[in-house]
């Protein structure tokens, strides 16, 4: 879509302007880019229908930017962007993807050492040239090398949150063909892994040729790797590959089982089949008659019948990692993992009172449409100045606004909640900062007045393990703290976890009744699946939050739920699956 391309250009303009120390404009471009990215309608359609005026009505987009959008739609580029790039021809996206490198560093690296891309950067760092630059030093040079190594390790994998919306779009398009009978995603996408190598889609159809021709003619394809009657592979503009497989109906279930994986799960499953005198493959489950080299088909039309014939309960795709799910399925002991519709509200939302994009009212409207019973506003607090964190006084003012909105919602519950015979409410929390010494940046008597308190580490993330663990545990002991946000601090493809002793954190959480967050933001997914499993086993409660700072981000909940399912979490483990009263009691 044009939206993403223009958003990318706007982000780059913002970075270039920031390098030149221009005031305000960079933020304006960033905001416009964020809004473009989250727009569901293609910008070209909006322009065709309503002209320049319609563009100006998009939040964050004024006259000047509307004209730039039109320029892009007509010429495929934006002159101002080209001029900025000519002056400093660097690969901005690549360089700023290294943790700790901001636009001003990019500028200085280019001016002093002519560094244009990641390769130049690595060479200069390894040669010890960066430490000699003013404002850089040895520590920065080491951090840069660490950042590059981290990037390389995650290369070639894409975030679930980048991929899934596109997969849904492709599947919807294919579904519109009447020749498609069955269609589903498989592979790591179906298992909802946090990162994805490539996308696998399986179909059955009455007319393979027509479907495949349609598939390879979709917009956004930059390469066709292969086009055959059973398998077609393409690469999309976003950089990842999609394999489409056409299957006979009789094999659909066994193929879906096989291509969903994981490989490790499949290996164990195949062995179980062998021990029973059966043979399992993507073509079906067969009975092998010894000596005769004869195979009789016994199952394969659906996945469920394959598992059943092997004597297993059906494991949800998110569980299929050979982490004990096969043993559990053999003994009727699979967990009853939470469902995608079990979440009743979201407790980690940034409003426009701090760095967020939308008002509390706008966010609440979306939450109600999603069928939520409550929404918790938890803006950053004062230590985070760049995020316009709120101080004690502002928190008190915000409480008044929330009270006002709440009385409004109570008088007039929306239709969906009327049907459920319940009302919607806004809760007030905050996301406070755990300072270096483990104290919280907001006074206790202000924390006390909130419905709940989230706190997280947002500074000095490179502390040694013992110190960091102590810091977090001290914060957990503050009786006002209810939820620890993004507990390990990792950013996918960018930053490692903090050095922490997670077992100690779990013990402290249990002791202090602190709830650990499963942050659904695509780059975070923190806690991850493994840690969720450990928390559950330790009897620690969790909450799945989005950390939304735009109303469109509320949909990220799906990714957090997916990881919770991968971590075997059940409704009893996740407080925002509980009845509201019970949850509020826990947060008291
Ligand atoms: P990805 O794409 O790296 O995120 O991960 P997957 O799991 O989607 O892996 P992919 O696309 O290479 O293959 C899709 C599925 O096909 C995989 O989950 C299991 C199955 N599969 C692929 N190769 C093998 C194999 O060598 N042995 C077995 N048993 N299954 C395999
Ligand atoms: Ca795959
Ligand atoms: Ca594949």
From TrEMBL:
<dbReference type="Pfam" id="PF14716">
    <property type="entry name" value="HHH_8"/>
</dbReference>
<dbReference type="GO" id="GO:0005829">
    <property type="term" value="C:cytosol"/>
</dbReference>
<dbReference type="InterPro" id="IPR010996">
    <property type="entry name" value="HHH_MUS81"/>
</dbReference>
<keyword id="KW-0808">Transferase</keyword>
<feature type="domain" description="DNA-directed DNA polymerase X">
    <location>
        <begin position="1"/>
        <end position="321"/>
    </location>
</feature>
<protein>
    <recommendedName>
        <fullName>DNA polymerase beta</fullName>
        <ecNumber>2.7.7.7</ecNumber>
        <ecNumber>4.2.99.18</ecNumber>
    </recommendedName>
</protein>
<keyword id="KW-0488">Methylation</keyword>
<feature type="domain" description="Helix-hairpin-helix DNA-binding motif class 1">
    <location>
        <begin position="93"/>
        <end position="112"/>
    </location>
</feature>
<dbReference type="GO" id="GO:0003677">
    <property type="term" value="F:DNA binding"/>
</dbReference>
<feature type="domain" description="Helix-hairpin-helix DNA-binding motif class 1">
    <location>
        <begin position="128"/>
        <end position="147"/>
    </location>
</feature>
<feature type="domain" description="Polymerase/histidinol phosphatase N-terminal">
    <location>
        <begin position="345"/>
        <end position="436"/>
    </location>
</feature>
<dbReference type="InterPro" id="IPR004013">
    <property type="entry name" value="PHP_dom"/>
</dbReference>
<dbReference type="InterPro" id="IPR027421">
    <property type="entry name" value="DNA_pol_lamdba_lyase_dom_sf"/>
</dbReference>
<dbReference type="GO" id="GO:0140078">
    <property type="term" value="F:class I DNA-(apurinic or apyrimidinic site) endonuclease activity"/>
</dbReference>
<keyword id="KW-0832">Ubl conjugation</keyword>
<dbReference type="GO" id="GO:0042578">
    <property type="term" value="F:phosphoric ester hydrolase activity"/>
</dbReference>
<keyword id="KW-0237">DNA synthesis</keyword>
<dbReference type="InterPro" id="IPR029398">
    <property type="entry name" value="PolB_thumb"/>
</dbReference>
<keyword id="KW-0235">DNA replication</keyword>
<keyword id="KW-0915">Sodium</keyword>
<dbReference type="GO" id="GO:0003887">
    <property type="term" value="F:DNA-directed DNA polymerase activity"/>
</dbReference>
<dbReference type="InterPro" id="IPR037160">
    <property type="entry name" value="DNA_Pol_thumb_sf"/>
</dbReference>
<dbReference type="InterPro" id="IPR003583">
    <property type="entry name" value="Hlx-hairpin-Hlx_DNA-bd_motif"/>
</dbReference>
<dbReference type="InterPro" id="IPR002008">
    <property type="entry name" value="DNA_pol_X_beta-like"/>
</dbReference>
<dbReference type="InterPro" id="IPR003141">
    <property type="entry name" value="Pol/His_phosphatase_N"/>
</dbReference>
<dbReference type="InterPro" id="IPR022312">
    <property type="entry name" value="DNA_pol_X"/>
</dbReference>
<dbReference type="Pfam" id="PF14791">
    <property type="entry name" value="DNA_pol_B_thumb"/>
</dbReference>
<dbReference type="Pfam" id="PF02811">
    <property type="entry name" value="PHP"/>
</dbReference>
<comment type="function">
    <text>Repair polymerase that plays a key role in base-excision repair. During this process, the damaged base is excised by specific DNA glycosylases, the DNA backbone is nicked at the abasic site by an apurinic/apyrimidic (AP) endonuclease, and POLB removes 5'-deoxyribose-phosphate from the preincised AP site acting as a 5'-deoxyribose-phosphate lyase (5'-dRP lyase); through its DNA polymerase activity, it adds one nucleotide to the 3' end of the arising single-nucleotide gap.</text>
</comment>
<dbReference type="InterPro" id="IPR050243">
    <property type="entry name" value="PHP_phosphatase"/>
</dbReference>
<dbReference type="Pfam" id="PF14520">
    <property type="entry name" value="HHH_5"/>
</dbReference>
<keyword id="KW-0239">DNA-directed DNA polymerase</keyword>
<dbReference type="GO" id="GO:0008270">
    <property type="term" value="F:zinc ion binding"/>
</dbReference>
<keyword id="KW-0234">DNA repair</keyword>
<keyword id="KW-0548">Nucleotidyltransferase</keyword>
<dbReference type="InterPro" id="IPR043519">
    <property type="entry name" value="NT_sf"/>
</dbReference>
<dbReference type="InterPro" id="IPR002054">
    <property type="entry name" value="DNA-dir_DNA_pol_X"/>
</dbReference>
<keyword id="KW-0227">DNA damage</keyword>
<dbReference type="InterPro" id="IPR022311">
    <property type="entry name" value="PolX-like"/>
</dbReference>
<dbReference type="InterPro" id="IPR047967">
    <property type="entry name" value="PolX_PHP"/>
</dbReference>
<dbReference type="GO" id="GO:0006281">
    <property type="term" value="P:DNA repair"/>
</dbReference>
<dbReference type="InterPro" id="IPR016195">
    <property type="entry name" value="Pol/histidinol_Pase-like"/>
</dbReference>
């Amino acid at each position: 879509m044009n939206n993403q391309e223009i958003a990318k250009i706007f982000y780059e303009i913002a970075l270039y302007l920031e390098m030149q120390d221009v005031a305000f404009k960079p933020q304006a471009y960033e905001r416009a880019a964020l809004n473009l990215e989250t727009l569901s309608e293609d910008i070209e359609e909006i322009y065709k229908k309503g002209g320049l005026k319609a563009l100006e009505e998009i939040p964050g987009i004024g006259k000047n930017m509307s004209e730039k959008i039109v320029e892009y739609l007509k010429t495929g580029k934006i002159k101002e962007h080209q001029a900025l790039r000519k002056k400093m021809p660097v690969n901005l996206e690549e360089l700023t993807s290294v943790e700790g490198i901001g636009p001003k560093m990019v500028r200085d690296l280019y001016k002093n050492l002519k560094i244009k891309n990641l390769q130049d950067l690595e060479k200069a760092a390894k040669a010890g040239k960066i430490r000699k630059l003013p404002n850089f030093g040895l520590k920065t040079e080491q951090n840069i090398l660490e950042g590059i190594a981290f990037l390389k390790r995650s290369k070639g994998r894409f975030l679930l949150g980048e991929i899934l919306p596109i997969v849904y779009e492709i599947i919807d398009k294919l579904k519109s063909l009447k020749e498609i009978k069955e269609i589903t995603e498989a592979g790591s996408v179906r298992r909802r892994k946090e990162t994805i190598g490539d996308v696998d889609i399986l179909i059955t159809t009455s007319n393979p040729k027509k479907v495949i021709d349609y598939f390879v003619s979709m917009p956004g394809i930059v390469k066709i790797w292969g086009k055959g009657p059973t398998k077609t592979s393409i690469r999309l503009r976003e950089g990842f590959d999609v394999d489409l497989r056409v299957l006979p109906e009789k094999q659909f279930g066994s193929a879906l089982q096989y291509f969903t994986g994981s490989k490790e799960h499949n290996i164990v499953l195949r062995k179980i089949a062998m021990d029973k005198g059966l043979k399992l493959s993507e073509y079906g489950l067969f009975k092998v008659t010894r000596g005769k080299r004869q195979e009789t088909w016994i199952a394969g039309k659906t996945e469920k019948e394959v598992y059943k014939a092997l004597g297993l309960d059906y494991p949800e795709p998110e569980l299929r990692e050979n982490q004990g799910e096969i043993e559990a399925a053999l003994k009727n002991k699979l967990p009853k993992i939470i469902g995608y519709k079990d979440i009743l509200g979201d407790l980690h939302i940034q409003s426009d009172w701090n760095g967020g994009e939308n008002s509390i009212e706008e966010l609440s409207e979306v939450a109600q449409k999603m069928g939520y019973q409550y929404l918790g506003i938890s803006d950053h607090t004062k230590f985070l100045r760049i995020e316009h964190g709120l101080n004690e006084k502002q928190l008190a003012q915000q409480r008044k606004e929330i009270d006002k909105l709440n009385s409004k919602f109570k008088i007039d519950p929306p239709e969906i909640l009327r049907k459920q015979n319940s009302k919607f409410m806004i809760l007030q929390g905050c996301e406070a900062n755990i300072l270096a010494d483990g104290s919280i940046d907001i006074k206790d008597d202000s924390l006390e007045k909130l419905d709940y308190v989230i706190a997280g580490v947002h500074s000095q993330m490179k502390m040694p393990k013992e110190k960091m663990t102590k810091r977090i545990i001290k914060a957990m002991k503050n009786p006002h703290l209810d939820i620890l946000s993004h507990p390990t601090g990792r950013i996918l493809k960018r930053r490692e976890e903090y050095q922490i002793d997670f077992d100690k954190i779990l013990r402290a959480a249990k002791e202090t009744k602190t709830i650990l967050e499963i942050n659904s933001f695509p780059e975070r997914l923190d806690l991850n699946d493994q840690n969720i499993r450990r928390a559950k086993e330790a009897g620690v409660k969790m909450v799945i939050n989005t950390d939304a700072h735009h109303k469109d981000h509320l949909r990220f909940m799906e990714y957090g739920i997916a990881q919770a399912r991968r971590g075997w979490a059940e409704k009893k483990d996740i407080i925002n699956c509980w009845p509201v009263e019970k949850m509020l009691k826990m947060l008291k």
